[in-house]
Fold these 4 entries.
Entry 1:
Amino acid sequence: MAGAHTPGRGHRHGASPAPEAGVPPAGRGHDRRLVAWCLAALLVTGSALGSVNLLIDGALREGASRPVYVGTLCVGVLLALALAVRQRVGERATVALVLVGDVSYVVLAWATTDPLRYAPPLMLLSTCFVAAWFLGARGLAVHMTAVLVACAFVLCDSYPSLGALVVPVLASAGMLDVVTFGVFVLRRRVQRLLASTQELSSTDPLTGLANRRSLVDQSPRVWRQARRDGQRVAALVLDLDHFKQLNDDFGHAVGDEVLRGVSCALAASVRPPDVLARTGGEELVVLGLVSDPDEARRLAERLRRAVAGTGAGQDWRVTASIGVALAHPADGEDPVDALWRLVDRADAAMYAAKDGGRDQVQVAGGDVLPLPRATDGGRRRPDPAAGGTA
């Protein structure tokens, strides 16, 4: 379960750091399957194109070259089948497969009578594409070096002197490496833009907390973990008391400051695995796993005290009414639907806490937890009788 965002930093407690660009985005199952299928398709395509030389008279050297050539093509097909069966591949395996492709090209070129005609360096384009799109920076550097060595080895017999060899090797390897590096840079930029877009789409811009969409995205994971661990899912709905009145008295800039301060306090008070989200206005939701109602009550009380402490030293004071609801996840239920049913129950309990006097916790189906009234300590406090929706 992803943890809460630390306000202003766009980071969640318990979330993995942004991965170095490798198998995109490095470690997710569906992406590893995509890489496996792409590699398998390229291996089959390369082997099919390479087999054309078997049909051309004089394309292969006499002797053992033909069995070596056929064997290399078969290795490519077998690797493709293995990838298709396994349906996943990590970055190290991808680096190894790219290097196998580079070596296979050298072997195939050696088996031909004229590499410039039957095995030109352009055949490395498929491995260059794989390296540019699926490898990290270190793996890419290894591949680019291998391309230079492969071009030099393949073309060395086609030119009479070292001086004559340098230009075509640098031209071929340079073109392939420049294209490879260019695609790699573009891919990294696209990945950063996608990561930034995803972060913006799942983060509340004012507080830095998770937003409603992120809360929904986390619900399947929460429900799976609850079923696996035999725990209950707890939803805590927090609504700031008299927040409209505070906005009216002090202005929306202060209201925004209050929301950010409350978010910081809550982010420091929730447990690392909990999901803390702002779902709209002055309402926040905490989603987490508990073993029993008492644990949920203790968490709610800790959050209530954290909110009450955010106005220290200010002209304003803020409190929160908290509703708590618990559920036992059932097999086969839709986690998103179950999430909103649970939040609705917690929301109703939150309104019951407001009706009971505010600044307190109400557990759905349980008793109100009355809390001692804090004194104003000489600070100005909005008058509840003055109105407001909260």
Note: The first helix runs from residue 29 to 50.
Entry 2:
Amino acid sequence: MDSFGIEKLNFYTPNQYIDLVDLAHARGVDPNKYLIGIGQEKMAVAPLDQDIVAMGANAAEPLMDEDLRTSLGLLVVGTESGIDQSKAAALFIHQLLGLPESMRVMEIKEACYGGTAGLMVALDFVRSHPESKALVITSDIARYGLQTPGEVTQGAGAVAMIVGNKPGVLAIEPNTVVASRSTYDFWRPNYSNVAFAQGKYSEEVYLSMFTEVWDRAENMSLTQSDNLAALLFHIPFSKMGRKGLRTLESKVDATSYARIVERFENSIIYGQQVGNIYTGSLYLGLLSLLENDTSLVEGDRFGLFSYGSGSEAELFFGTIQPDFRAHLDAKKHSSMLKNRRRLSVAEYEHEFEKELVQDGTEQILKRSDFNAPHRLIGLNKHQRSYC
């Protein structure tokens, strides 16, 4: 039986961050409110020249080679931080990566679920076109505003995945369980550059939809907790995933639950350092687990729970492939996180308040990351220029 899934994946995050202990002191709260209560440690801060296009291209560039470029038949970008109401961010990335014109290119929006929607579209595509591959990119900048309740759950970053019929990392099973319902737990109107949220209600919807898809998956004999090596969650902040995990304590046997809990801790390492990256949060968790858990072996089966406010959820499953570590770059990712610049609170606030021009005048941006191959150069006549 043919298998399809993730062949390679990589992530990029801006080279600057705010330490949440510093932020807690500045906001006059106990740091443990952030470190334990939210479960986060640091938060990536995106400079103007690293928008979702630049970050997405930077995540994807290390995966590229000429053979891959010619075999790509689809590029999907999942984002809820779109830069244009009409033109897809994917088209900018398509040009930056030098991809062929003879392929489909699109952007998908459904809050944090957009990346999973892109992955599912990509899987359907490669199953129908096994000679082709797909590139799925999740790229987002989470913004809630300074001194707001959601401030501590901001972040920025992108994850890129190659999807095809030779899944060197994770073979994804065709059977999934989905749920959709219209809610107002989190939203951002077109006229606002920050999101609105009903935090407690959002948590309730998240947990309710996880329970719904888990129970249906169990009825379909998909969960099989005795051979489930790990369960990954959409983690806008690690405490949210932990609460989802706790709903299973009475539903799975003690041995399985202990194993899933232990692996969960490795899946949140990167997210605790980067913060909320919306569509990419689940896949950053996948990468974190694969690169930080040395006990994983070929054949280990994962469950992956994706959630997007508004709201849509999906639970799907995959199996680790032989030599999966050869398709990862843990040292590079560790170095990228270690070598970021720590911003003072004043610097962070100044960075947050910077804006791109909106009147059509010319704006040239300073380069923030000399190790990143792609960036936004500036704007002129309402058009963005990248390199």
Note: The chain has a mean pLDDT of 96.
Entry 3:
Amino acid sequence: MRLSRRARRWTAVVAIGPLVLAGGCTSGSKNGKAQAAPPPTLTLSPGGNAAKVPISTEVGTATDGKITAVTLTDDKGASVAGDMRPDGSSWLPGRPLDFKRSYTAQVTATSAAGKTTTQTTKFTTMDKPDSQVKTEMYFESGKTYGVNMPVTVSFDPPVPKENRAAVQKRLLVNTDPPQPGTWSWPDDGKQVEYRAPDPWRLGTKISVRAALAGLPIKDSFGDGDHVASATIAQNKVNLEVDNKTKQMAVYRDDKLLKKIPVSLGKASTPSSSGKMVIMEKFDTTVFDTRGEPNGGYVVTVSDAQRLTWGGEFIHAAPWSEGEQGYTNTSHGCVNVSTTAADWLMSVTHVGDLVTVKGTEVTLDQGNGFTAWNVSWEEFARHSALPVPADLKPAPQPAPSASPAPSGSSAPSGSPGGTGPAPADSPAAPASSNSVGG
């Protein structure tokens, strides 16, 4: 998912305080004459002739004004495009700089009074590092996602708390129409997720840049930039699974489409209760749990939709159709009939919300796309940067239900279960188990 695109304007979700200007009703004077406002003071970063500069470097830093213009060229005279930070604190190149390359930056700062200062700095970038943090972004260009799709970035090794603010500042999201949100870190620092207070509006266009190449992270550096643009679907789909009734209710635009009998995880391998998001979909895949606790089987399944890194899926389980709606027999998956599984694949999107309730265990944060498994207040509390206090969810209307036929059942067969990430699926972040139970 390291996709390069032409440079464009990016926005980072950072709380910016108001610019306060001190002053009175009259300007200062000396001998009765008004004094001209001084030009802004400009401290250049990187400094002149700096060496081994990270290829992630930003340019600028004005102490009493804003950076308003930057031109950056390499040692062959080629220019590098980029964009200003919204608060005018620095200028961000639109791509990672090259290793072991010399650059010249001309930087202009402007004061509140309109005075300008322009200076030039030269620097040389670092060698390619021996140690890199493996990063992965689970958001792809050209895709259509459900309204609850978070943007998720994983890190191996995890990001220490003291480095998370610097990393988060390099995670840039732009939405059309605008829907500001924030990033949130599970305690282990193995992934970070972005969402707004409310689900995305239908048809929203989302562009993301995880500008991590060469970014210092503890004793290492980010391994690459990740860029993607995708669209949110034109309808909202959500699934609600109740262990008490052994039924799945399928809603589209808050209207009940169908109820489907299910068989969840048995007592020794229970399904997780919580708010999950469909992570990926497979027409056919193989669960191989040999050598895993409560595993030891290999089974091919159809119409599988991943819910967790740990290996919980919704999938067709013809062997348990007799138990669906009555008894839990799986190794943690949501088993449905072959007919129901095929129908669900035609209705759902990656990014749709799946809520499971009433099971013996709760979903762990970070075990999948878990951005909606906590309240907005709790989610925002785990941002490494300040979140505007007025960024809150809007009141949500209560869903309306209408009668719909239940799914069918069929004779039972051999036991079903969950399995590891299929060979062609994106790698699970180091935060989670790649094999479920």
Note: Confidence is low (pLDDT under 50) at residues 1-30, 402-428, 430-437.
Entry 4:
Amino acid sequence: MKATKKYENKKILVLGLAKSGVAAAALLHKLGAFVTVNDAKEFDQNPDAQHLLELGITVITGSHPVDLLDEGFVLIVKNPGIPYSNPILEKAIKKHIPIITEIELAYQISEAPFIGITGTNGKTTTTTMIHQLLNSERQKGQAYLAGNIGFPASTVAQDVTADDVLVTELSSFQLMGVDEFRPHIAAITNLYEAHLDYHGDKAAYLAAKWRIQENMTSADFLLLNVDQPVFQELSHHTQATVIPFSTAKKLDRGACLSQGVLHYNQEEIIQASELGVPGIHNVENALVAIAVAKLSGVSTAAIKATLTQFSGVPHRTEYVGDVAGRKFYNDSKATNSLATEKALSGFEKSRLVLIAGGLDRGNEFAELIPHFKGLKAAVFYGETKEKLKKAADSAGVETVHLVDTLEEAVPSAFSESDEGDAILLSPANASWDQFPNFEVRGETFVALMKKLSK
């Protein structure tokens, strides 16, 4: 960890806990700051706050009192999920109190360089691919996962050396709170409309993502998806060295898909059919990972071996097993139609049985109709089953079953499948009608698959 007296004897407010808030508060306390933590959850139901109090940190819970700012704080480290419309933050902005997120704090103390991955879709899979690639033949140091995946960056950054590298998945929320943060390699996987309730509009969302490159120089590398016109334009507005990637056009420089082969700077790396995970979206993810690996000195042989064996990230089009010749895929993370569209693109529909359904948020699923066409069968469950059936009927899907629960859906899907088929859970809905989160939903799917084999 870099030695710093920057925060010594400074009054700092950590707003919001969860993993990143706890990590930031503990680090600032270690650096000699006078830390106050403020979290909305009541103290008796807040083990994180109780732990920090035991460390000697001032803890205020149950609400976010605006008069806290009368205490003379010189900095706020906020939980990324707390919007800037929070009254404390609005007042802090008026008082010109700097506001950062925990990733900025991690950067300031890290001896290791950062690789930063952001975008709307594919961040977790791409970050995980990169992590595995950079450790595949590493002789010195280690690549660490941090940020939205793995451990909080400010925890990991305390122990790394200059021989290591931090591979970080970064959200738009985190990037709004950076100041000095400068990754050596950064990538924006893609950009679609998302989190507009937080950002207000797509322009503000893009601006937050674009902050990943604001401190980069020509010695740093920025990977941009040139299939999207917005990044073709923005590629001319950065100091970083731009590395383009594309699944739609052949590139002489950068990473691209051409005639079913993934290339980097015109070198053939791997056949798309050899990737361990299916779908054009995973080709896009792999192109980013290949470019980062090549820029980091990883050999083509190691890249190919790693990506061939890569089985995905839990709950994201993850291959989870084979029962009687049927391959099962868990895509429980698909909590909206766009994610399910991406998953469906990776399969031969005539050999695919889809399981979908979940919480009704008012969507009619018309956007899924063209992607349902050609499905061998579909099983829909939960609150949205009737709406999904309407879309499947419009798509001409001949075999559709409606059930109440996922527990009924899995054996129903199996009964409609034959040897050589795939069974995919890609719900297109949030899980909260029947499960506390998408992880539990995915774990339940895997358990039900295993039950079929008994």
Note: The domain at 103-309 is CATH 3.40.1190.10 (UDP-N-acetylmuramoyl-L-alanine:D-glutamate ligase).
